[in-house]
């Protein structure tokens, strides 16, 4: 392809994305008016329709998988791409679960009557048009639709090109169900994915797109957040620490650390650095190291028998059976280390000392702070939100696990009987 | 100045801003730990100190005013720049008012105990480092400090170069008071203002600055929001409408429209377009037009006796004694017009019809919707927030009048006794 034709393609793709965004904005105007019952009916019908279309979806997915295998994609990635009857059941089960969740739209957040008789209500309303940019897994396509639709938003889905056939098959079913229920099908659209130009068009579509949420690796998230002209919500980067305080129970510390590292090492709430207070190192270091090593964890640190640590290890989000380990002088040194290297996701302290627990909880700057509990609990489902939108590591709008209410904004509705404001 | 030396200056200014931002971030870590009593003591001491230093502040301000007058600045702008004893009293009164407001830090937003015994609390915490970019008025310098400090944030102030001497004098007093109270004085800093490079450095300081709020004209706001790499909150642009529904009381409509246009035409909540339903135009048009004209308002529209309206008038945020006026067929047409031309600030309907009031409230997409009330009520002080941070016209994080809680984020604090997450 020549540089010129590639530029022409990018211009065409940009125009297509803007067209889809305009259509989504138009659809969004009517979504906020749907009743909860109407939305739930659509979500349940969509689940049934995907179950009924499982054969076509699996056939489309087989094309994606074959293409990926022929391109020599690594097996772990191919596995994330692959659908099977169980995974289809998981996808449609997710839609039914979202249907069962409370509707965030119309909830009155606060309200009052002013001395002049004006009645104020602050009401949750949909954001409007939400964009998701994500990687291989086709289940995010349906998830992204479900949570957006339940919260009254239109959604623009920019999945991976490797899942293009699967995503197209799924979105086709969703749009057909919307039409059957007399809902504007532009409430969900799949953006072109052959190159990055659709991402660029999406994240710069000011006035059409209300928020873009990237779901995927650190590189994808940084690209979206740093180049966006529309608001974004940064998710997921987690360099999480567990600090074993001098007043810790060693058994508790060991169990929590092993759980936080080995339960699912590839997710963002796994622990990446263990900080052990010198005041307890003599009792705690050996059992923690040996428990981790017996589970196949590689320890990077300065102590004998560890892989020697470099500055990079303190920054590392391994997402693997690796962990960094450091001895620290005291609580202040632990917080200083976390301030320097943490990503503001989840930080934990193990201690039986009330003053240390309070100081750590208050002083550490993160979306979630755990006292005597595994970092693995930072999760929308664990927190009881029912749906998994991602974990915000930014401070504006949403912080920590995001549920359906995080896909809403608010509106002030003020009712009066002719009040005017004095000069 | 040569292009080369100007580039060198820009690099120096950028380094200075980053240095100030790093110092502010360091100060911010301790601000969140101050008790409400400590913060209030500082705010009251700052008010007293500015009162005591009134002569020096007024002398510095006189320099700014002289410079502006010599440069031929228009009188309205010079007036905004000018301080006098009454305005100083207004500034210090504002600080005392902020001291009296509830502390937003530490408020528990929600919480629960999970089935496994984990105790969750979502607690309001400071954002960290807040940047304000604003125009001539020196009172914003002290306001910006007061609301940021009360909410536990460090603040970077980028005022207008025309107010440089006044701002420097005020910030010097504030920093001295902080030092006297053993608070890190880098909790407030005045950024260089000789050119735009300090704005650019501020809005791109990712990792150091948590949010930038522009306060000023539409051009300033657009520049900040579109070029920022840090989160921003868009404020203030208001093309507000009042729709006189067929079921309106004409006297109410007339009083509300005249109030919304003439009370303070230069503020963002003034009405800029009046939409009159054809179903009531015969009774309503003449009294509304004549009431507006008797107050010196120029009406832009398609009816006889008006200045002929062009497409630009429907977009216009006049901020003057001008208003656009249009006849519309019905509620749908009014909403369609507002969807097309509105800026999402405040939209009002005048009607005695309950169904119309509900439909307008629910369907119009704006920060505030008024039923039978003046658009002038969209205001933090009117809503009872006590402090005026601006009116957000974006949907993320904050929408409508912003109070102190809008300068906070949240943190999940989770206490347990050794819980681990099952596989």
Automatic annotation (TrEMBL), chains A, B:
Entry function: Catalyzes the NADPH-dependent reduction of L-glutamate 5-phosphate into L-glutamate 5-semialdehyde and phosphate. The product spontaneously undergoes cyclization to form 1-pyrroline-5-carboxylate.
Enzyme class: oxidoreductase
Keywords for the protein's UniProt record, in alphabetical order: Amino-acid biosynthesis, Cytoplasm, NADP, Oxidoreductase, Proline biosynthesis
UniProt keyword annotation of Lipoprotein present: no
Catalytic activity, as annotated: L-glutamate 5-semialdehyde + phosphate + NADP(+) = L-glutamyl 5-phosphate + NADPH + H(+)
Family: Belongs to the gamma-glutamyl phosphate reductase family.
Species in which this protein is naturally found: Gordonia hirsuta DSM 44140 = NBRC 16056
The protein's annotated pathway: Amino-acid biosynthesis; L-proline biosynthesis; L-glutamate 5-semialdehyde from L-glutamate: step 2/2
Localization of this protein: Cytoplasm
GO-annotated cellular components: cytoplasm
Keyword flag Magnesium: no
GO biological process, one term: L-proline biosynthetic process
Sequence ranges assigned to domain Aldehyde dehydrogenase in this UniProt record: 14-295
Protein name: Gamma-glutamyl phosphate reductase
Gene Ontology terms, MF aspect: glutamate-5-semialdehyde dehydrogenase activity; NADP binding
The organism's place on the tree of life at top rank: Bacteria
Source species taxonomy: Bacteria, Bacillati, Actinomycetota, Actinomycetes, Mycobacteriales
Cited Pfam families: Aldedh
Entry's EC annotation: 1.2.1.41
